[in-house]
Design goal:
358 residues, TIM Barrel, disordered C terminus, binds flavin mononucleotide, 12 strands, alpha/beta, two-stranded antiparallel sheet
Amino acid sequence: MADGPINIYEYEPLARERLSKTQYDFIAGGATDEITLKRTRQVLDSIMLRPRMMADVSRIEMATTVLGHEVSFPVMLAPSGAHGRAHPDGELATVRAAGSAGTVMVLSSASTYTMEEITQAATGPIWFQQYFYEDRGMTVEMAHRAEEAGYTAICLTLDIKGTSKRERNIRNSYVTPQTANYQWANNLVRDRSATWDYLEWLASQTSLPLVLKGIMTGEEGKLCAEYGAKAVIVSNHGARQLDTTFATIEVLPEVVDAVDGGIEVYMDGGIRRGSDIVKALALGAKAVLIGRPLFWGLAVDGEAGVRAVLNILRDEMEMTMALCGRPTLDSLDRSMLGITSPLLSALPQSQGLGLLSL
Ligand SMILES: Cc1cc2nc3c(=O)[nH]c(=O)nc-3n(C[C@H](O)[C@H](O)[C@H](O)COP(=O)(O)O)c2cc1C
């Protein structure tokens, strides 16, 4: 008998036992009917792998780069607020785990510890996530503060112009925790009028590369590249903002095709198995990010729990690549997938999709 959890799914109930109902629901939940939340897993599970047998898989290469940083495998830690809700060490634990796994953490501006305390604890590169504030001075000030503290990219989250209806939180009377980074104030109100010029303006104010998070269409992916972003994250905020959107894995190919190699494309949403990572990379993502699983690891065993979560994903990814006969990241492509989702199966047959179209 293994003594601990052996996959990401087994972490969740253990974490649930350690968290209050309010905190568990905040982390696990999605917007309104949670249709996209469910769809995310359904679509990932509906993508079938077409394995090759007779390939040399004696060495599996998973290391890659994200915005020029070397990472040991293509999984980053998604920006997510207040890790202190899951463990007293909060982001200090998470950033250490990211460093020891050889990958990048994206720090949420709503962190439990200050952005400066977190860089002190870091042993690898960190990116800083923030929003577009109505007070543009504040937006730039945050970016400059991150730059000074040693962050190497600004991740701007675009999909949170409104407070979404998360019904579990409403029922639980959830109260957003205070962040250590700043005092809540009116000048931190998100700018609902922001359009592409805001982005162009911000890009001119910081020397850090901009990563735009929350893109769900090819048209906007292309605009991100045109307005100066260096990378884009295909994301629907873990199905926590607008419900009844497609799953991110379904729209990933249209974004990849629209940006056409001009900028890097990452994806998050529902990554729970090594095979999910392989599927996203086969559809053109350079890397993926994980959100909820890091909270499950943190709640169960702090830094060691996050490390264990990352190790499980790494081992499963390696095994999937070996059994698929695809030993390098470059060898992962659309021809290894059979697709049942109508949106994905509409992609051209020449790209290897549509095999299992129903
Ligand atoms: C508890 C929680 C807090 C989050 N906080 C933020 C945040 O502060 N900023 C942000 O851009 N995204 C935030 N997200 C979204 C994640 O960055 C990511 O898009 C999502 O969790 C990925 O889906 P997954 O949880 O299925 O892996 C949060 C997600 C969760 C679960």
